[in-house]
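Hi there,

I know you've been waiting on this one. I reran it after we fixed the sequence typo, so this is the corrected version. Both the input and the resulting structure follow.
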Amino acid sequence: MSGVKNILFVGVGGQGIILASKVLVSGLIAAGYDVKMSEVHGMAQRGGSVTTQVRYGDKVYSPIIGKGSADVIVAFEEIEALRWIEYLKSDGRLIVNDYKIPSATVLSEKEKYPEGVIENIRSHIKNVTIIDAAKEAKKLGNIKSQNIIMLGALLKILQISEIDWRKIVRENVKEQFINLNIKAMEVGMNTSSKL
């Protein structure tokens, strides 16, 4: 174990961000890391922003990640990636789900969903991985598995090999979804290695 690592999950209510974070935290604790997690639901039930901050290492004193301090940001939705980008370290890694969730103002046609979000991200961040988790989740037969696909991509990047992630998934998801989520995690691990 070494210094403290900071992981920021960002997205929209209903995307399974809390579950993905809890699976990560469970695995890190099982491996002996000191772990702190903070979650903010905002207007989650209405499609608002949801974030979780996970910090782990030898000794962690606070669950809060400051601006410019995240080693990795995992963005489950494009606009949320832009919204939270200032929290990424200059040499940090950004994992973005190439997925759009229109806000209420976009759905009511009061605003337009911004164009070129991925291109904008690529022009500002050199260490970025773009994943079409929705496409991969549809192949698995359940669009809701995007969260664990994104988690799998993160796990590949973190390279914490001493953890049995399949066991951790089994312990944290409902029985009827275990196989789906293990497959989703493996898809995420394999997808990120191709990018």
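Quick highlight: Residues 33 and 57 are 5 Å apart (CA to CA).

Best,
R. S.
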